[in-house]
Here is the input.
Amino acid sequence: MFGHHIMLPTLSRATFCVLLFAGLFNNAVADTPANCTYEDIRGTWIFSIGSGNNDRTVNCSKSFTPVRQSKFQLTYPDVAVDEFGNQGFWTIIYNQGFEVVVAGRKYFAFSKYVGKTSYCHETMPGWSHDVLGRDWSCYSGKKLGEAIIKEQTPAQRDNSLRFSHRVNSNEMVEAINKIQNSWEATHYPQFDSFSEEDFINLAGGHSSGVHSRPKPAPLTEEHKAIMQSLPKDFDWRNVDGINYVSPVRNQGGCGSCYAFGSMGMAEARVRIQTNNTQTPVFSPQDIVECSEYSQGCAGGFPYLIGGKYAEDFGLVLEKCNPYTGKNGKCQTDPKCPRHYFTGYRYIGGYYGGCNEALMMQAIHQNGPIAINFEVYRDLVSYKSGVYHHNPSLTANVGFNPFEITNHVVVAVGWGTVKTTGQKYWIVKNSWGDGWGLDGYFWIERGNDECSFESLAAESFPILSTLS
Ligand SMILES: *[C@@H]1O[C@H](CO)[C@@H](O)[C@H](O)[C@H]1NC(C)=O
Ligand SMILES: *[C@@H]1O[C@H](CO)[C@@H](O)[C@H](O)[C@H]1NC(C)=O
Ligand SMILES: *[C@@H]1O[C@H](CO)[C@@H](O)[C@H](O)[C@H]1NC(C)=O
Here is the structure.
């Protein structure tokens, strides 16, 4: 796990869900305004920790009185050491915050922001608990050294506005189909009612087009051997004729793709673990309304939801809080049993350690994985074939390359086009089953298309006796 050579993750933008197939987009889509890079976080931190012995209902948004301090050194690539020399692990979660696990305790907090200003040398109040989840306390962190203060750069919305009407237009569809034949585009009448403002909201007000995610970890000889040992084609919807993947859903007008992606991974993994004797459909609304590890319809991350939330709080079935796609007070039936997951991690062990081989291995051994990737809006028109974004669309139809959003989906397998040898991932989307290949799409595999191979997460179901 520590052996990979990785590119340092340098991150620049907040994450946004793509919202589709809803008539109105009132929600601007964004995660927290924090924008803190790996380099901002790496270093020595003092955590001021509140009194312990709470349970998971502890409210860390309230002010708390620190009763002790702990010092952590966070070093490359993912090694955390406390003041006693205990060695553990740390990872950033995109540009939003970081988690530290040392000496049997976990610490997670979002990076501090006030308005649109990030204070990357500090955290918001966060949650600390032992790895068994019994003893909770609040904490906040401060990094030694200079203050790291960043103003969010204003979004380049004017560009989006200028070209946004072309998304889903016949002109766009024709241009896509003319300049390449890897995938086929089609016009979806569902989008005809979209105003320019809808598309702006759809795009979430993201800012610079320069996306600097971590590159995938290089493929070592060991990774290549892993790939050699795996089948050329694999699909959890058809393993010796058996389907282990839950039905496609529709997130509607809420930036909840991260919840659907997390639930999609979790549902399939329960099916796999129980040989399809348990087929739960979990509640994304519980996440939207009740999770403090995400921002409701304004975004979130699979590491924190399919991972950390599912471990700390558990998931409930859809019927315990049916999907409305709206923010609101937590309405989950408190009597509903909770389904727990554990062992959550980024594929490759930490943010920046991911690559094609490790993703294939995780899918094959453990089940579908949740992917956070960059969506260009030509994906909206996807009908079939192996998707890749074609930069010459910019020249041909004025397609704005800056129109990138972040979206979360579930990779359920992979394949190879017989005639061309083109490799692809098989991906479950949450835009309803009337889109793409019955709700699925294929995307190019092996070259980090749309950063698909840089940010994948998984977690493991704890066998439940409750269903
Ligand atoms: C936590 O405390 C804050 C501040 O007092 C309050 O606004 C919030 O509703 C509380 N959250 C819960 C879940 O009780
Ligand atoms: C986030 O920070 C990076 C690097 O510090 C910067 O290049 C980028 O423009 C910032 N993004 C936003 C939305 O402010
Ligand atoms: C899994 O389920 C299938 C289909 O019901 C059955 O044929 C198979 O024997 C089961 N496998 C195990 C290990 O129980």
